[in-house]
User: Which sequence fits this backbone?
């Protein structure tokens, strides 16, 4: 008997792939090879440099470049430390090292050493004619060769400042990915008891991730992505790739158990769960691409990288997975670990059905408990402090951390905690109505009276007389809250008061000032991104589920999920609850752009589970017209697979907390927490309890709106 035809384009596509598995799989393997070769040939570039036109730091940088170009050149610090005696005891070796540094390619100058009061620490500022990120990590070998005379004489040598862009090794997350894959395999084996059913989602996900990273690398040959973009794309791609394949495989196995032919089962799977995959991937893509609304291409391109990975994994889920299912066919449970493998439901009286009945009897209780849990988790959010994680959070013993500590722990002009983040003040006097000498004296007097200023260089004019320049050393380190407060004081009160009525204007520039402007810009534009994501998600879900109530509830609950994830992140990083666990030596602020990135990612990923759950509920609702029965059936049918998917994605994300990059640690932990909260408290408690309480009102949609909206179904 021929299998019944499956309606819809996705169903026909899935059926075709299932009937021609060898061709489809071979095509994907060829695409994988082409993507990886293309990535190699494209020579991708990555940079964390951010341009902020219109900000004070950017204006100050432009003034420096015009009137004092040597001050605006890329530079870094080479720090020397004597374990015993003083650096001056090895003067000849130090002089040879300075000479060798000046002879390096792209080096324009190496300043005379600045020495601490005890003479044990000194540093030279090395200037370059090329952006440091363009020198590549291999340039570290040249630096090591140039500083060998100092090492041979017994001096310690470390590289700090912006030289971190050169000496910091590119993050290698292969171990994290391997741990995530192995853990996912164990979870799949335990959850479904079939070796082939466990291996299939992993194999297809790995192929799609490989293709996705290849595509990201090819695009990075034209667009310069952030250094964390590839890691983030791989992390998200691996997580959603396994989950999408898992949802499809589970539905396929259930159809096999119901007696359907493998090709028909694969086609039906693509038609039903495949539509949910497509809508879920679209939701993630919309959320990630909304990051461009912040107006910062640095962040927008991170979202683009993640979107490319998600698009590829969704394409693989709709073609490669049905092909693999068609190839395996009825043998998917041949290698089993339990007597009777299970798929979606174990019967009308299994534990998930009983749980659904319990929630239906006590919806107010479950709703109250779920909201209370999210409320407690969200409390730390009230004290969130955005900032920049600097070299002080690098791994102890690394060159960048060593240089940071030597400078921070020494005394003297140019040393101390604030010396790792000096602030350059540029005063534009080109249109001043007051004599420049008087302006210089007023600025000097104002800085002397400002709390938090450890020292500052003399306020001097440039050669063209258009600007005055001084470098301020704060009393606290770059990522300290007091340093941020000092910048606000300088730009908001101290300098405007000193220049009042003179016609001159002051600008704070340098890396610390630029990071503060970046933080403030993010804070101003975060509501825009949130608003766009919420509106687009609401419209998409309203169109898919033909309801106003369901998307409104989904949007609100996902906001709660994000708030709870932020709260946990603050407790772990900012309050220092996870310092030893995550390899950090001290609490750190939340990196400025992490909340914006997390909101888009968390919202997109949490909508994945929402869509898979609601799609099953909607199927039952359209079939029975009974809301109570539909919610119970949808919850029981998806509880196992959503729990397994959540465990897998959590394992993948947590494996990336071993990354040496603190920002990746933050995103990985934040995403893992959000998945746990979403798949347990939200998806299994709040969503069903709220839907039980709303009854038939869940499916309310004004008739006029129903006629206008396009017809989409998950």
Assistant:
């Amino acid at each position: 008997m021929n299998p019944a035809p499956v309606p819809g384009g996705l169903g026909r596509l899935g059926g075709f792939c299932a009937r021609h598995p060898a061709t489809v799989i071979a095509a994907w393997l060829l695409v994988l090879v082409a993507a990886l070769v293309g990535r190699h040939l494209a020579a991708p570039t990555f940079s964390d440099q951010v341009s902020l036109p219109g900000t004070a730091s950017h204006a100050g940088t432009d003034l420096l470049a015009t009137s004092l170009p040597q001050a605006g050149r890329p530079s870094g610090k080479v720090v020397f430390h004597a374990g015993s005696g003083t650096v001056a005891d090895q003067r000849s070796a130090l002089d040879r090292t300075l000479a060798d540094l000046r002879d390096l390619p792209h080096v324009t100058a190496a300043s005379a050493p600045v020495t601490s009061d005890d003479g044990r620490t000194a540093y030279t500022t090395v200037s370059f004619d090329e952006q440091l990120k363009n020198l590549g990590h291999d340039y570290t070998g040249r630096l090591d060769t140039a500083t060998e005379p100092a090492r041979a004489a017994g001096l310690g040598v470390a590289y700090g400042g912006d030289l971190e862009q050169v000496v910091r090794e590119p993050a290698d997350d292969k171990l994290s990915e391997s741990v995530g894959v192995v853990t996912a395999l164990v979870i799949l084996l335990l959850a479904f008891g079939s070796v082939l059913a466990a291996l299939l989602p992993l194999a297809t996900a790995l192929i799609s991730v490989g293709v996705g990273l290849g595509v990201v690398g090819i695009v990075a040959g034209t667009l310069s992505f952030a250094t964390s973009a590839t890691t983030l794309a791989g992390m998200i791609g691996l997580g959603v790739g396994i989950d999408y394949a898992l949802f499809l495989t589970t539905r396929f196995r259930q159809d096999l158990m119901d007696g359907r032919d493998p090709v028909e089962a694969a086609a039906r799977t693509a038609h039903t769960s495949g539509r949910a995959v497509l809508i879920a991937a679209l939701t993630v893509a919309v959320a990630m691409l909304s990051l461009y609304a912040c107006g910062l291409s640095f962040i927008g391109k991170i979202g683009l990288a993640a979107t490319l990975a998600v698009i590829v994994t969704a394409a693989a889920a709709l073609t490669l997975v049905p092909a693999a299912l068609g190839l395996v066919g009825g043998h998917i449970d041949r290698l089993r670990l339990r007597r009777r493998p299970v798929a979606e439901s174990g019967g009308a009286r299994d534990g998930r059905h009983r749980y659904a009945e319990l929630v239906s009897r006590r919806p107010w209780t479950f709703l109250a408990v779920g909201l209370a849990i999210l409320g407690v988790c969200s409390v730390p959010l009230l004290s969130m402090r955005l900032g920049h994680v600097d070299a002080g959070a690098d791994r102890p013993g690394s060159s960048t951390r060593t240089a940071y500590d030597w400078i921070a722990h020494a005394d003297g002009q140019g040393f101390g905690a604030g010396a790792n983040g000096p602030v350059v003040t540029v005063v534009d006097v080109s249109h001043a109505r007051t004599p420049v000498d008087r302006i210089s004296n007023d600025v000097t007097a104002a800085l002397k009276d400002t709390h938090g200023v450890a020292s500052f260089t003399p306020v001097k004019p440039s050669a063209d007389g258009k600007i005055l320049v001084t470098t301020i050393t704060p009393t606290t380190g770059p990522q300290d809250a007091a340093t941020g407060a000092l910048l606000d004081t300088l730009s908001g009160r101290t300098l405007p008061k000193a220049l009042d009525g003179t016609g001159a204007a002051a600008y704070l520039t340098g890396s610390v000032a630029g990071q503060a402007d970046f933080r403030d810009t993010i804070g101003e534009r975060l509501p825009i991104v949130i608003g766009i994501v919420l509106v687009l998600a609401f419209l998409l879900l309203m169109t898919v589920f033909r309801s106003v109530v369901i998307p409104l509830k989904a949007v609100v609950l996902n906001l709660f999920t994000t708030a709870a994830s932020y709260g946990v992140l603050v407790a772990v990083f900012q309050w220092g609850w996870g310092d030893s666990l995550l390899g950090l030596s001290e609490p750190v602020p939340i990196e400025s752009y992490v909340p914006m990135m997390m909101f888009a990612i968390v919202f997109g990923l949490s909508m994945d589970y929402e869509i898979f759950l609601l799609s099953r509920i909607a199927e039952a609702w359209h079939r029975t017209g009974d809301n109570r029965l539909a919610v119970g059936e949808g919850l029981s049918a998806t509880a196992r697979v959503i729990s397994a998917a959540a465990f897998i994605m959590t394992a993948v994300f947590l494996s990336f907390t071993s990354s040496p990059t603190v920002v990746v640690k933050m995103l990985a932990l934040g995403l893992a927490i959000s998945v746990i909260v979403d798949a347990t408290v939200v998806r299994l408690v709040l969503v069903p309890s709220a839907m039980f309480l709303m009854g038939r009102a869940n499916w309310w949609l004004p008739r006029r709106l129903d006629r206008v909206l396009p017809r989409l179904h998950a």
